[in-house]
């Protein structure tokens, strides 16, 4: 349904540029030269346009309702939602399909896929399940009448756990596209600028030599939400491991989503483990620490992988209290 909507949106943009105030009451309002055959044609165009706009608005409302229901269900499944946003043609849908193919898609989630192909549950290599959500590509100069409805489809971005901001780095206007997307995101009511955002520089297969590195430097944005960047090619499957890792790391270090809380006692004989955690192992966040006579007593938030690795140092709540009071 979304590509069709976009077709309407783009058509709308074109019509507006040619015709003026589409949907502003339908009066022809033109000069004398519009009288006669031309006027009939123009008012027909306008009435067609009005019908299209009302059809699109209705469809957007339906999408919004369906999404809301699905969001509620997804949240009850307890999955973090990772939204792919970006300018139109950036490669969001290609990336989402490619990611979903390389990882196992759980059978119980197939129902959602039938309902909405723009949502996929995937298991990342680190063992974490996330819900990927595709969104409609951003377009500049959207007709005013459609902006509200268009934003409605982005509503889920407001409630997203994190954002993958997909960029077509082979486009000569990549920088403007990024700026435009960041601006649109900021304008969404209730959107938190702190929502962690990974810049995904896509289509690197189209760049030659070290152009990618050069580009990356020129495209750095001082946006508070941006926590990292990864270069990928959705088409050729380049950079997926780094991307998955970036998603997992971000979920652990920038959100509270699904990360396990653990109490650890690391003996001084294993201080290299402690040193590693202190060095900022991105899959573990130290929430509190105490240097006791038995070792380092820590309360941490850990990713599923880190949780498995650290399980040998785990202590019960009771022991934690006891050691802490000694
Ligand atoms: N060379 C190359 N082409 C790509 C890559 N990723 C996507 N494309 C192409 O870019 C075009 C747009 O890809 P889509 O995935 O439809 O882009 P999108 O961001 O979903 O676009 P909208 O839905 O319009 O917002 C398609 O022709 C893709 O085949 C890539 O990594 N390399
Ligand atoms: Mg798409």
From TrEMBL:
Record InterPro entries: G_HFLX_dom, GTP-bd, GTP-bd_M, GTPase_HflX, P-loop_NTPase
Gene Ontology molecular function: GTP binding; metal ion binding; ribosome binding
Protein name: Hflx-type G domain-containing protein
Keyword GTP-binding: yes
Signal peptide: none
GO cellular component, one term: cytoplasm
Keyword GTP-binding attributed: yes
